[in-house]
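Hi V.,

Quick status before I head out on leave. The structure for the redesign project is tokenized and pasted below; the design run finished overnight.
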């Protein structure tokens, strides 16, 4: 934040979105679009931006390839918006160079793990109404989370009421594994499906045997009803 304040004193001569302020210091270019009532990410952000602040706006969604043209981007601040949906390829194109990504204080309940696990950036995910599930657990274990904000990743909703309102890390420390719950649910569903198919096969076999038996009985009755040819011959 201190670095952003310093950048504000140096004007940037190249093109800049009308709703933002662009500055430069020591070759590092910043685009500051804080508190501008933006509802979506500006389309005309300069390609050589290193720092991008979009905090304190009304952005609700991060679409696929939203920052793909910003190959020099190192820090991205999307905190204090109204973000509810993040597409799987939202950060495609900036994964390699991005060092900090702030998504705190939004309305995010869930997020595709593919959107974050490809990043090497330090993530801030605190103060969102998270639904504690397997995908969020995998992000917690595998992504680079800001250690100062991990305790503020709280379960707003969860499969069990006792987890609601508790930090996700605290819930997981008790031995809870949301992914194993999902796997057990999948196993049960597969078992029920297989049992259903097996029952259908059994019913088909029974019907087939019964139908053949009835045909055989009718054929035997037909044969026994025929006149005795040997008797006529005598």
């Amino acid at each position: 934040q201190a670095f952003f304040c310093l950048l504000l004193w140096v004007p940037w001569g190249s093109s800049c979105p009308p709703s933002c302020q662009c500055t430069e210091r020591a070759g590092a270019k910043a685009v500051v679009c804080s508190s501008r009532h933006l509802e979506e990410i500006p389309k005309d952000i300069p390609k050589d931006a290193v720092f991008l602040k979009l905090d304190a706006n009304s952005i609700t969604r991060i679409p696929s390839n939203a920052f793909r043209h910003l190959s020099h981007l190192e820090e991205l601040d999307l905190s204090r918006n109204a973000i509810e949906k993040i597409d799987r390829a939202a950060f495609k194109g900036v994964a390699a160079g991005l060092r900090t990504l702030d998504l705190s204080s939004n309305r995010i309940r869930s997020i595709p793990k593919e959107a974050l696990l490809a990043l090497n950036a330090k993530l801030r995910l605190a103060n969102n109404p998270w639904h504690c599930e397997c995908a969020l657990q995998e992000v917690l274990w595998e992504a680079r989370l800001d250690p100062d904000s991990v305790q503020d990743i709280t379960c707003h909703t969860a499969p069990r009421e006792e987890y609601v309102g508790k930090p996700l890390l605290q819930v997981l420390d008790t031995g809870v594994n949301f992914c194993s719950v999902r796997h057990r649910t999948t196993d049960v569903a597969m078992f029920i499906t297989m049992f259903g198919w097996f029952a259908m096969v059994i019913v088909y076999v029974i019907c087939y045997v019964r139908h053949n038996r009835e045909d055989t009985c009718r054929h035997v009755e037909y044969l026994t009803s025929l006149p005795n040819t040997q008797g006529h011959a005598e």
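Above is the designed sequence. The first strand starts at residue 21 and ends at 25.

G. will cover questions while I'm gone.

Best,
W.
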